[in-house]
Amino acid sequence: MTVRALVFDAYGTLYDVQSVRGLAVELCGRKGELVTQLWRLKQLEYSWLRGLMGGDEDFWRLTRASLEFALEAAGVAVDPKLCERLMAKYLDLDLYPGAREALDALAGRKLAILSNGSQKMLDALVEASGVGPLFADVISVARAKTFKPDPKCYALVEQALGVGKHEVLFVSSNGFDVAGAKAFGFKVAWIERGGGVTPASSDIGPAEFYKLLRGRAEKLGPGADFRIKALTDLPSVAARLG
Amino acid sequence: MTVRALVFDAYGTLYDVQSVRGLAVELCGRKGELVTQLWRLKQLEYSWLRGLMGGDEDFWRLTRASLEFALEAAGVAVDPKLCERLMAKYLDLDLYPGAREALDALAGRKLAILSNGSQKMLDALVEASGVGPLFADVISVARAKTFKPDPKCYALVEQALGVGKHEVLFVSSNGFDVAGAKAFGFKVAWIERGGGVTPASSDIGPAEFYKLLRGRAEKLGPGADFRIKALTDLPSVAARLG
Question: SS3 of B189, please?
């Protein structure tokens, strides 16, 4: 197999969605951690539910709706200014350590992003983090009017990059995205960022619960072809594949 | 509007999915509460993800896969006998208090269940709880080869019961199901079983986190037509509608 393109998920893979926590704690105090975890889980749920229901909802609006859900559930007043500050952080999330280094090392290949984010969100994110020039395309699933893991999303890659599905190495830390990309027919590298420490009892907080729920491989069909620990492991995987 | 049929969601609406907790605690000790919450959340996630991915997976297999995920995440050995005992409880979940009383009071109308469960699971559940004779039909979404809230699921009702969508009062405690049924065009009664107590801080356990995530109205379009506190409030809602 020759890898002609490496395609990256954005949220949770290149960009740390948990990097909203600092601001959430600044703005929501002792509820900040809870808001962070409820927000991300509800954002994912809304993407899946909206994908199933139809209705072509913008990911920015879904992200805002899930933030408002999280604030209300946590008992934090839904102040428009507070919401705007947290939403703005979503356009300026931190890159994971080593992301730029890994992308630079892969720059001889065709690189792209395929994300649930809206085109505007992704363009802003890529520009803010200064990695725009490294990508041949930044693909929003909005072009398919649904959300991952709907196969119509992964099919966008072939069209946008002019490559066959067997020539793509898809990279994600999200278990559901790994399952969807693998079912579609990509080769997949799963960045295993850790499913948390095995708990001693049921007495765990929201951050640990989130890790258990989201950090592990999903039981939804064939698993990833490669399990790696960090983005910086990618160049050697790609080199092995040719 | 005349209500010609009342259609009930099963899991979480007529039947208490949290009633697996007792057995989970018996079998998994201090991890039982954690297993209970991870299991249910992952089961829901898998239904939505499989619905989006396609693949027509049976809900019984999804439920088993999500149980194994939950056990592994909690650090409990995936023993086949333990799994079988917990799975068996899914065929014999407790009816919510007042369920039989409410169904009896509504027995002059056409009643049905529409559930993500497989036909086998639902038939077993309805038989174990002795309410089978009260229903005109027990409809598994498997007939539509997808899961709620895909509109194809709700469309099964019209065909199965011979009623128009505007003649149906759909009853669910699940926010995502309310959103899907409402978007489809049913009149909807939401059983608000409580989104948990507003927490004082981020320091909450899995059961409370589950309630915050699942017990509230979703921000996915128009809300329910009726908000009720218990199944026993239904006869008066139905009487009002005619």
Answer: strand
Q: Are A95 and A19 in contact (CB under 8 A)?
A: no
Residues of B in contact with A42 (CB under 8 A): 213
The residues of A annotated as belonging to the active site are 9
How far CA B24 is from CA of A28, B86, B212, in Å, comes to: 35, 7, 21
- Interface test mutation site (partner B, options A57, A83, A148, A219, max chain B beta carbons within 10 A): A219
Tell me which chain B residues have a C-beta less than 8 angstroms from the C-beta of A203. 30, 205
Is residue A82 over pLDDT 70?
A: yes
pLDDT at A196: 72
> Measuring CA to CA, which residue among A90, A88, A84 is closest to residue A71?
A84
The pTM of the full predicted model, rounded to 2 decimals, is: 0.97
- pLDDT at position B16 is 95
- Within an 8 Å CB–CB cutoff, is residue B214 touching chain A? no
Are B212 and A151 within 8 A, CB to CB?
Answer: no
Domains of chain B: 5-16+92-241 (3.40.50.1000), 17-89 (1.10.150.240)
Greatest CA separation found in chain A?
53
Please list, in sequence order, all residues whose beta carbon lies within 8 angstroms of the beta carbon of residue A231, skipping any fewer than 6 positions away. A14, A96, A98, A99, A101, A102, A103, A171, A191
Cα B176 from Cα B220, distance rounded (Å) = 8
Among B31, B209, B219, beta carbon nearest to A209: B209
Contact B173, B211 (CB under 8 A): no
Average pLDDT over residues B61-84: 98
Mind telling me how many Å the CA of B149 is from chain A's nearest CA?
6
Query: Are the beta carbons of A73 and B149 separated by less than 8 Å?
Result: no
Q: Rounded to a whole number, what is the distance in Å from the CA of A89 to chain B's nearest CA?
A: 21
Taking phi over 0 as left and psi of -120 to 50 as alpha, with beta for the rest, A42 belongs to alpha
Q: Looking at the DSSP assignment, which residues form a beta bridge with residue A95?
A: A15
Q: How confident is the prediction for chain B on average, in pLDDT?
A: 96
